[in-house]
Amino acid sequence: MTVDEALSRLQKSAFRAKFHLSDEDINYIDKKGLDTVKSHAEDFIKKRLAPAVIPNDGKQTPMRGHPVFKAQHACACCCRGCLNKWYHVEKGRELSYDEQRRIVNLLMAWIEREYRSYKNNT
What we know:
The protein is mainly alpha-helical. 64% of the residues lie in helices and 0% in strands. It is built from seven helices and no strands. It has helices at 3-10, 14-17, 23-32, 34-49, 67-74, 80-87, 97-120. Helix 4 crosses helix 7 (97-120). It is globular, with a radius of gyration of 14 Å.
């Protein structure tokens, strides 16, 4: 599944489609830059989603506080349960580097799309 196909599919979910970047998220991106946000995404995925065993799986991703957190919920990359349901990534094994990279690419595509939309409408 391509990034565009995944984003299109996610938009058909009422729950996933309700997530949008806030003014605070946009200001954060303006201040830090997309490269820094991507670095944060890589770190969050590596530490909170990639391990084989996640003690608080299903609760490890806050609903707000960082643009990446919103992207994780919007893209169903917030926990291993959602990864399994949406992308058939089995639980109980560590995510490969390639899987982590694909997740980060999806999150950044969502963030960049939201960012452009926000900037075009202000």
